[in-house]
Amino acid sequence: MQTTTTLPAPSAPRARAFSFAWLGVVPFFLFAILFLILPSGILLIGSVQNARGEFTLENFGGLFQESIANSYILSLQLSVTTAVVGGIFGFLLAYAAILGGLPRSVRTTLLTFSGVASNFAGVPLAFAFIATLGRLGFVTVLLKDLLGFDLNQTGFSVFGFLSLTLTYIYFQFPLMVLIIAPALDGLKKEWREAAENLGASAWQYWRIVAFPVLLPSILGTMILLFSNAFGAVATAYALTGGNFPLATILIFRQIRGEVLGNPGLGYAVAVGMVIIMGGSLAIYYFLQRKTERWLKQ
Amino acid sequence: MSFLELNNVRKTFGQTDAVRAFNLQVERGEFVSFLGPSGCGKTTTLRMIAGFELPTSGAIVINGDDVTYKPPQKRNTGMVFQSYALFPNMTVGDNIGFGLKIAGEPKSAIQKRVDEMLAIIKMEKFGARYPYQLSGGQQQRVALARAIAIRPQVLLLDEPLSALDAKIRVSLRQEIRAIQQKLGITTIYVTHDQEEALSLSDRVVVMNDGRIEQVGTPFEIYNFPTTEFAAQFVGTLNTIQATVRDAARGALIVANQEITTSQKLDGLRNGDAHSIAIRPERVSFAADGKKPNVLNVRIENITFLGSIVRVQVSAGENIFYMDTFNNPFLSLPKIGDHAEVTFSKEAVLVLKNK
Known about the structure:
The complex is a heterodimer of chains A (297) and B (354).
Chain A: H1 21-47, H2 58-61, H3 66-99, H4 104-117, H5 123-133, H6 138-147, H7 161-185, H8 189-197, H9 202-230, H10 234-240, H11 247-255, H12 263-295
Chain B: E1 4-13, E2 16-26, E3 31-35, H1 42-50, E4 57-62, E5 65-66, E6 77-80, H2 92-102, H3 107-120, H4 136-149, E7 154-158, H5 166-183, E8 186-191, H6 194-200, E9 203-208, E10 211-216, H7 218-223, H8 228-233, E11 238-246, E12 251-254, E13 257-260, E14 273-278, E15 284-285, E16 293-304, E17 308-315, E18 318-325, E19 338-343, E20 349-350
Parallel strand pairs in B: 3-8, 3-9, 6-7, 7-8
Antiparallel strand pairs in B: 1-2, 1-4, 4-5, 9-10, 11-12, 11-14, 12-13, 14-20, 15-19, 16-17, 16-19, 17-18
Helix pairs in contact in B: 2-3, 2-4, 3-4
């Protein structure tokens, strides 16, 4: 007897079931749309409109006014200085704690402190600096009473560039520690041993292998520090009372209607900052990619 | 005097003895493998030869030069690591030329040597690539080229094939052996893979718990293990409980059946219980005719392993294996059947314990 086997008909492709995991990310997208994409769009549109709502590029021409150009230069100076100084200081600290052969507790303490300090910015940090190094600050008085050294006579002011730099470095170097620590951990012991086995001294290993491997991470993190400082406003505003003409303070005062009197120009200042920040992050992304590519097995 | 000597080398980490009284002489151009389980001290011994660990006591001599306390840079050894350890920021060519660059050799000489090395590892077209652009096997070949580019006195390989898949491992180990023989480099190879050690080495050092269990050629190690550990660790081994019947004649009783060994049972008395060992491939089904050792067994299980069929049998309380080559016309008894198996007197190993 002949038997036939009937194959089951191919089932129609089933529609992909809705995943409730999407609900979990809804708040993020909502937040991003409301507070990032929408404001950015408004900024961009506002920056190319005049008071009558007509299209214009005049606002961007206004960026070259002396006061605005100077505020950009000041912001760039402050950001670059604090990124480089904070970056080097943070790197040396992280190196000492992670590769310096110190007890494990030092590393844990440093990383915990860095986690807290990197977020300690704004009004509390400004107040802490005034309370420490202000005209009647704790350290100022202590130096005068104990050593007879009058900090105020040196021309140092908590409201100046140096003070602002010091204040920024307080939250910049911990950020460097936090970000560079995994990169230092990523240096393989075998690289050092292989270099030694091939005749290299410790200095040669660092110069030819370890430092070049770390360089993209160091530069990338410094760029993050730059962006961090470039976009900061609360610390500088609280410390100097808004009298230090950084680009962010200019925008802040523009929002409050204290300067410029031209919303379109204010938008253009902000777009200029967004472009600088975007460029920085693009370089950071490029450097990170380079490091990741190197380190993948 | 041997080319590489380890004289009474000992290493402790805190209270733990990692390597105990290690004595070994290696001749120039010899390929010696350290074989043992994890934690047996083989890598620590290798790292002491490289200079990454200092011995607690003892001496290491390379080509007549006592290097015991010399730093790694002054030993002229080439090391290949399990994780390749290629410098990720350098091209293949720069990695291979690294040691020569450090030694201050001229660029033209470095380039010539790099080209030679690339030819040896058959990667002539890969000089400008970065490690991340290579497969694991290719990276390890580059690591090998980098280690031998400096013309080391001793080549040290620390489980270089462990991270690779099985096929690559087999082909690369043949390549390593061919390169070693071509260049005549004295080589120490650390592995926990017995097949690797047996197939590559002139001599194998079986290690356990920080000490040497046995040193010998692969043939000696496999066929004439001197300790139970060496016998168990290298290859598959059946351990069978027996009772001494006649120590002078080498006769024992297994499951009420007599078997004989080719040696006297020195140090044992009649009636003593003692373990003997037999390799599965030395056991076969008994055909008609008189055989020196025949045991009546029950077939417990049959496992197909490709080229080999492994049959599990029992004789009284003893359960052991016999291996037979597979062929399409192989006729095997069924599970539960009774059969006779045989093995020669020489196949019976009477192990001593250290």
